[in-house]
């Protein structure tokens, strides 16, 4: 952009004012008496309850909560150190059947359940933002969109297992829940105005049974850069070294990459050292962290090298479902045609109802139907497949007729 094309200074949008705490920053609750006092306030409070949790994902193996933030009208904000207590069931009882307000509920529900906190009703501001097809649905973006305030997120990736927690981190944590009740009301009003309140209610209801992401088969295959590994023997070495690292990480509650980076696993698997002496001299053992566990790496390499051919992992993971769609056009043209029609139909419906495609219907359900339509094909049969796959009633009502037509054409 030339100087002549530059936007005049007086036309540049001023940054939004920062979101500030309305109440003084409360002390961390880390004693039984302080927790009992706050639980009594929550029980006597009114309206929904805003909750959030901070983990130490980049530092710890576990996904446990290291801080739980709570806010309710009449109770104020509570910053609770869950590590100081056996559980938080007293808080759960104090909340009772009041509605929870969470942002990105699937991130926090498992670690909150771990300490005894389980919602009976909830409202997820991130999911609601997706149903409204907002361009950005992070908490800071929603605060900017609805409240015209900026919300700093610089401590989101901090090591929340640190003790004592620094005051700037606590300020950040308190802001995350202080704004949620107001945000929920504004978003709920827009859901109502756009006719999407019932859709949101059904999606929120489905979240009540969420316990965490599904367990991955062969999680070692997610080693970064594994596509560069050649041969089943090398893959076996990746698996053995990855498993050794995972065991150490779990025992010490340290995120695996801080014990041995993925790149080092690939180096050892691609060019395994001949013996323990050679391993100690390897480039990847120069750092103190990996070197502390050199005997475990050596044992893993020995196991990988000593495996019989039929014990080695397959070059490609086993698939229970259909193959990747990119292979359909050449080998399964009829299925590819069905998938193309189904995707087009779902895309058109999503545009019509101002929804992201994936929130109207998850892509894996569309792929599954296109790969193997129910026989005999009928609206009832398609609806049953979608219901078994977790689609909510509102999603099935909108999509079954279009999918039925797409599957029957051709």
From TrEMBL:
<dbReference type="InterPro" id="IPR051086">
    <property type="entry name" value="RNase_D-like"/>
</dbReference>
<feature type="domain" description="HRDC">
    <location>
        <begin position="231"/>
        <end position="311"/>
    </location>
</feature>
<dbReference type="GO" id="GO:0008408">
    <property type="term" value="F:3'-5' exonuclease activity"/>
</dbReference>
<dbReference type="InterPro" id="IPR002121">
    <property type="entry name" value="HRDC_dom"/>
</dbReference>
<dbReference type="Pfam" id="PF18305">
    <property type="entry name" value="DNA_pol_A_exoN"/>
</dbReference>
<dbReference type="InterPro" id="IPR012337">
    <property type="entry name" value="RNaseH-like_sf"/>
</dbReference>
<dbReference type="GO" id="GO:0003676">
    <property type="term" value="F:nucleic acid binding"/>
</dbReference>
<feature type="region of interest" description="Disordered">
    <location>
        <begin position="306"/>
        <end position="328"/>
    </location>
</feature>
<dbReference type="InterPro" id="IPR002562">
    <property type="entry name" value="3'-5'_exonuclease_dom"/>
</dbReference>
<dbReference type="GO" id="GO:0006139">
    <property type="term" value="P:nucleobase-containing compound metabolic process"/>
</dbReference>
<dbReference type="InterPro" id="IPR044876">
    <property type="entry name" value="HRDC_dom_sf"/>
</dbReference>
<dbReference type="GO" id="GO:0000166">
    <property type="term" value="F:nucleotide binding"/>
</dbReference>
<protein>
    <submittedName>
        <fullName>Ribonuclease D</fullName>
    </submittedName>
</protein>
<dbReference type="Pfam" id="PF01612">
    <property type="entry name" value="DNA_pol_A_exo1"/>
</dbReference>
<dbReference type="InterPro" id="IPR041605">
    <property type="entry name" value="Exo_C"/>
</dbReference>
<dbReference type="InterPro" id="IPR036397">
    <property type="entry name" value="RNaseH_sf"/>
</dbReference>
<dbReference type="InterPro" id="IPR010997">
    <property type="entry name" value="HRDC-like_sf"/>
</dbReference>
<dbReference type="Pfam" id="PF00570">
    <property type="entry name" value="HRDC"/>
</dbReference>
<feature type="compositionally biased region" description="Basic and acidic residues">
    <location>
        <begin position="311"/>
        <end position="321"/>
    </location>
</feature>
């Amino acid at each position: 952009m030339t100087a002549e094309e530059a936007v005049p200074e007086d036309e540049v949008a001023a940054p939004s004012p920062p979101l500030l705490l309305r109440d003084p920053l409360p002390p961390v609750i880390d004693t039984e008496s302080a927790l009992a006092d706050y639980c009594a306030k929550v029980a006597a409070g009114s309206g929904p309850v805003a909750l959030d949790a901070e983990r130490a994902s980049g530092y710890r193996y576990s996904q446990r909560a290291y801080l739980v933030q709570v806010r309710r009208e009449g109770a104020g904000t509570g910053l609770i150190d869950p590590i100081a207590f056996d559980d938080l069931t007293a808080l759960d009882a104090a909340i009772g059947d009041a509605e929870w307000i969470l942002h990105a509920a699937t991130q926090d529900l498992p670690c909150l359940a771990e300490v005894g906190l389980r919602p009976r009703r909830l409202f997820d501001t991130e999911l609601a933002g997706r149903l409204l097809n907002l361009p950005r649905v992070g908490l800071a973006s929603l605060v900017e969109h609805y409240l015209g305030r900026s919300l700093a997120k610089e401590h989101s990736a901090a090591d929340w297992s640190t003790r004592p927690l620094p005051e700037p981190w606590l300020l950040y944590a308190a802001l995350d829940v202080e704004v949620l009740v107001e945000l929920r009301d504004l978003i709920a009003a827009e859901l109502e105005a756009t006719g999407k309140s019932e859709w949101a209610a059904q999606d929120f209801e489905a979240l009540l049974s969420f316990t965490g992401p599904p367990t991955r088969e062969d999680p070692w295959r997610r080693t970064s850069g594994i596509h560069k590994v050649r041969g089943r023997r090398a893959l076996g070495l990746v698996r053995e070294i990855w498993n050794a690292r995972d065991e150490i990480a779990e025992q010490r509650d340290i995120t695996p990459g801080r014990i041995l980076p993925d790149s080092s696993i690939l180096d050892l698997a691609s060019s395994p050292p001949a013996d323990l002496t050679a391993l100690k001299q390897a480039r990847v053992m120069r750092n103190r962290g990996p070197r502390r566990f050199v005997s475990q790496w050596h044992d893993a390499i020995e196991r990988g090298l000593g495996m019989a051919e039929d014990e080695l992992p397959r070059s490609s993971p086993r698939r229970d479902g259909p193959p990747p769609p990119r292979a359909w056009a050449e080998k399964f043209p009829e299925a590819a045609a069905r998938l193309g029609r189904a995707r087009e139909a779902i895309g058109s419906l999503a545009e019509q109802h101002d929804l992201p495609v994936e929130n109207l219907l998850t892509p894996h359900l569309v792929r599954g139907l296109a790969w193997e339509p129910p026989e005999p094909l009928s609206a009832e049969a398609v609806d049953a497949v979608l219901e078994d796959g977790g689609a909510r009633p509102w999603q099935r009502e909108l999509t079954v007729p279009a999918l039925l037509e797409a599957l029957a054409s051709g």
